[in-house]
Amino acid sequence: MTASGINFADTRQCACSAARRKSRELTRFYERAMRGTGLRAAQFTLLATLIQTGPTPTTRLADFLGLDRTTLTRNLRPLHRDGHVTIEDGADRRVHKVGITAKGAEAAERAYPAWRRAQDAALARPWVG
């Protein structure tokens, strides 16, 4: 208890903090499952999304994935470097379109079985609570 009478012990039950801990735990679970595939979990999600959407403006892709643009850019950098995605200027040079390459589609296809196993196992685990 503080001098103002606030009982900060109540924050031990913070729903936001608990959700973030569970999110990090779930992310680590997928990362372990994806080891050896050549892709991280977030990279796989990006490639899988691009397979489904086709070339997409970065702003729309960020919104779709629930990411801010700087996080998306940071996640795209190694995929672009490794030839998994293309990033092209649109008619408006402020707009960049991201597309998947054949190499990126092949990497996602190779990683899919690891993701599928992680997905099935994750859905069987009690992550909430």
Detailed description of the structure:
The chain is mainly alpha-helical. 60% of the residues lie in helices and 9% in strands. The protein has helices spanning 15-34, 41-53, 58-65, 69-81, 102-124; strands at residues 56-57, 85-89, 96-100. The chain has a 3-stranded antiparallel beta sheet with strand order 1-3-2. Helix 1 (15-34) packs across helix 5 (102-124), helix 2 packs across helix 5 (102-124) and helix 3 crosses helix 4 (69-81). The longest helix has 23 residues, at 102-124. The protein starts with 14 loop residues before the first helix and ends in a 5-residue tail after the last helix. The mean pLDDT is 91.
| Helix percentage range | 55-70%
Q: Tell me, rounded to a whole number, the average pLDDT.
A: 91
Number of helices: 5
**Class based on secondary structure composition and strand pairing:** mainly alpha
**What is the overall shape?**
flat
Largest β-sheet summary:
3 strands, antiparallel
Beta-strand fraction estimate: 5-15%
Find the count of extended strands (DSSP E, 2+ residues).
3
Radius of gyration: 19 Å
The residue ranges in which pLDDT falls below 50 over 5 or more consecutive positions are none
N-end to C-end Cα span = 27 Å
Q: Write down the secondary-structure element order.
A: HHEHHEEH
**Spatial arrangement of strands, main beta sheet:** 1-3-2
